[in-house]
Design a protein that fits this description.
By secondary structure, this protein is of the alpha+beta class. The protein is built from two helices and four strands, in the order ββαββα. Helix 1 runs antiparallel to helix 2.
Length: 92
């Protein structure tokens, strides 16, 4: 079972608002796809859509604020993403 490669990190490109960034690793493409599908459902339910980058076994999730600073919505989304990744990894 693979674990997330790191914890959420705070980042801030020059003259941009802060963001949360985390990379998740999965055993295979099937797990990656399952995570992405489930994350899309959460995105629609919460009304928040992160920036995603992914390949066969990794997904990078960038959570940027809708306002000038990170708020409750972004933090809740990050927690949901972490829980989904852990559930997906354990299921495989």
């Amino acid at each position: 079972m693979r674990r997330p490669t790191s914890r959420w990190t705070a980042g801030r490109p020059r003259s941009a608002p802060p963001m949360l960034i985390r990379k998740f690793e999965f055993a295979d493409y099937s797990q990656t796809r399952d995570f992405l599908d489930r994350l899309a459902e959460v995105s629609e339910e919460m009304g928040y859509h992160p920036s995603l980058q992914f390949d066969r076994t990794q997904v990078s999730v960038n959570v940027s604020p809708l306002e000038e600073t990170l708020g409750d919505l972004e933090v809740r989304f990050a927690k949901q993403a972490t829980e989904l990744a852990e559930q997906t990894q354990q299921a495989g």
